[in-house]
Every structure is written in C-alpha cells, then in structure tokens.
Amino acid sequence: MNKHNQMQSVKNYELKVKRVQLPEPYGQIVRVPGDVVRLARMLIGDSAQEKFCVFHLDVKNKVIGFSEAAVGGIDSCPVDMRSVFRTAIVLGASGIVIAHCHPSGDAALSPDDVNLTQRVKEAAKLLGIILLDHVVVTDVGGVSMQELGHVF
Questions:
Q1: 113: left (phi over 0), alpha (psi -120 to 50) or beta
Q2: Mean pLDDT of all residues in the chain?
Q3: Is 121 exposed, middle or buried (0-12, 13-18, 19+ CB in 10 A)?
Q4: What is the CATH code for 21-144?
C-alpha cells in the first residue's frame, strides 16, 4: 500500500460572522407572540411551499439573527435539528423562536407540528438555549403555540 492510499482527506470549514445593519426582523424586540407572528408572516407567510425558520434572540429578546432551516413541499417540511441550531450556536443566541408556514392557508396545528416542537424543545434544553415559542403562519394570519397554552 502506498502513502497516497493511507492518507485521508479532512474538510476544513471556516465560518465568518459579520454584523451589518439590516431591516426587519433584525433588531426587533420580541415582547409578545404577536410580534413573532407578524415577523414570520412578513418573511414566509405567502410562500407556496412550507418553510421552517428560526429567529435567534439575545438575552433581551432582541432578534440578532434569522435563518431558514428547512424548505419542504406543499404540505410537509422535514426538519433537521442541526439546521435548526447551527446559526443560533454561532450567533450565541440565548433563545429562539421557531416558525413555519402552511401554504394551504389553514394555520391550525397538526400533530406533526406539536411533535416537532417537542423535539426542538428537548434539543434546545440540551444546548442551553431557550425555546420561547413556535408559530404557524399563513398569508392571512397565524397562531402561537404559547398563546394556545402549550408549555415552553
């Protein structure tokens, strides 16, 4: 066996974070669930396919970042936990709010929505990040799981 066959390659990734002044949602303070519903509707509410996004918050609940963690089809969106938390960890977020859209126009929660929220909540707890809410939005409205009585 020659030396070339014994060597393995290793990927080296470098991630740079740059702070710039941006329009909404950056810099907005999340005070009530309606704040997140409004921001999520503005960003993904009119999407023709399901999108799952994460708002990254500092200790004063100011939005310091936003990421689109998954894009699905018309009626489903598989979500990978690594994608949910990647940017939150890099930004040093103390809390997150997750949101996704229902292109059907019906913001009612599905059992899958509730199960996904529980998975995110468990992962957030392990990472020391607070999950504040999960909102579901459409082009005309939205619902907050916190307002519906789900415990976070």
A1: alpha
A2: 88
A3: middle
A4: 3.40.140.10
Contacts 24+ apart (CB under 8 A), 84-92: 84/52, 84/54, 84/120, 84/123, 85/123, 85/124, 85/127, 85/129, 87/54, 87/56, 88/54, 88/56, 88/127, 88/129, 89/127, 89/129, 90/15, 90/17, 91/17, 91/56, 91/64, 91/65
pLDDT tens-digit readout, 73-82: 988 999 999 9
Q: Where are the domains of the chain?
A: 21-144
- pTM check: above 0.70: yes
